[in-house]
Amino acid sequence: MIMRIFQVTTRPGKEAAFAEFFHETAIPLMKGTKGIVQVLPGAARPETPRDFSFVMIWEDLEALKAFVGEDYNSPHIDPAEAELVESRTIRHYDFVAD
User: Fold this and answer.
1) Could you tell me which residue ranges the ABM domain spans (predicted)?
2) Residue 66 belongs to a domain with what CATH number?
């Protein structure tokens, strides 16, 4: 399995708009995506109000590529989020089960 960690920093002043997108659109979308075993969304905290993240566990690399394409190392974004986001990072790991 593949663990994908996607982190977002919003543009200043766009925290509330991104939070709405995150809760109303992004979380339901990811939870309903074929090939995802588990989704762990992380909302902003008071000390980091512009930072959000997802930890996603994918069945395998092929399932991830089926969703994001061959260039899976680039952050896959929804067009609605593009104007709200200042920066994105993406990392992949082999998931280690207990």
Assistant:
1) 1-71
2) 3.30.70.100
